[in-house]
Design goal:
The structure is a single chain. By secondary structure, this protein is mostly helical. Helices cover 84% and strands 0% of the residues. It is elongated and about 50 Å long. The N terminus and C terminus are likely disordered.
C-alpha cells in the first residue's frame, strides 16, 4: 500500500500535465510540419486519448483541437514562407530542396494538374491525404501563389486535419480503459494510415519492373 501511495504522489497533477503537454503538442506539430519526420497525426491522436481521461474531457478535447490546428497552420505557413524564399532566390534554398525531395515526380504532376482545375479546394484536401501535403505545397510554390492565398486554404486544411486525427484518438481512448493502451492503439492506427499508401505505391511501381526482369531472364535462358 505504501508503494502505491508513493506512486500516486509521484504522478504529476492534471494541471501540471496540461501546462507541459499543450506547449509540447504545439511545438511537436510545428516541428513535424517543418521537418516531416515526426508523425504529427499520432501526436494529436495521443493528446486526444489523454484528454478523454481527464476530469473535463470536452474542454480538454477542445483545447487539443485548437492547439493542434493552430500548430499545423503555423507550421504550414512557415514552411511555405521558407519555400517562397527559395523560389525567389537565384540559388534556391535548402528548405525548397527539402520540400522537393519529399514530393515524388508523379505526385507533383498530379498535384499541379488538380491545383489548376480546383484551386484552394485541393490544398484543403491535401492535408487529409497521407503524403499529400508536400506535393500540393510544392505545386503552389511553383505556381507562385502568394502567401495570403496559400493561408486561405491552409486554415481550413489544418482544422479538418486536427478534427480527423482527434477523432482517431477519441476512438482509441474509448476502446481501452487505460490511457497508455489508447495511446498505443492511436499511434499504431495513425502510422498505418500514413505509411500504407506509400508502401502500396512502391509495390505497384516494383511489380511491373519485376515482371519485365523475369521475362528478360526467361528469354535469356
Amino acid at each position: 500500500m505504501g508503494d502505491l501511495a508513493d506512486l500516486a504522489r509521484s504522478v504529476p497533477s492534471e494541471s501540471t500535465q496540461q501546462a507541459v503537454g499543450y506547449p509540447s503538442l504545439f511545438l511537436l506539430v510545428v516541428f513535424g510540419s517543418l521537418v516531416p519526420v515526426v508523425p504529427t497525426g499520432a501526436v494529436v491522436s495521443s493528446a486526444a486519448v489523454v484528454a478523454i481521461h481527464q476530469t473535463a474531457p470536452p474542454l480538454s478535447l477542445l483545447v487539443v483541437f485548437g492547439v493542434g490546428a493552430l500548430a499545423a497552420f503555423s507550421g504550414d505557413v512557415m514552411l511555405y514562407w521558407l519555400g517562397r524564399r527559395g523560389v525567389r532566390s537565384k540559388n534556391g534554398s535548402r528548405w525548397l530542396e527539402r520540400i522537393h525531395d519529399h514530393a515524388a515526380p508523379e505526385r507533383l504532376n498530379q498535384a499541379r494538374e488538380r491545383l489548376e482545375e480546383h484551386g484552394v479546394a485541393v490544398l484543403v484536401l491535401s492535408r487529409l491525404i497521407p503524403a499529400g501535403r508536400i506535393p500540393v505545397m510544392l505545386a503552389c510554390l511553383l505556381a507562385r501563389w502568394p502567401l495570403r492565398r496559400f493561408a486561405r486554404g491552409a486554415g481550413p486544411a489544418a482544422l479538418a486535419w486536427a478534427a480527423t486525427y482527434q477523432l482517431i484518438g477519441i476512438l482509441g481512448g474509448s476502446l481501452f480503459p487505460e490511457p497508455w493502451e489508447g495511446v498505443a492503439a492511436a499511434v499504431v492506427l495513425t502510422v498505418a494510415i500514413s505509411t500504407t499508401p506509400a508502401l502500396w505505391r512502391r509495390l505497384r511501381r516494383r511489380t511491373p519492373h519485376d515482371a519485365r526482369s523475369e521475362a528478360r531472364s526467361e528469354a535469356a535462358g
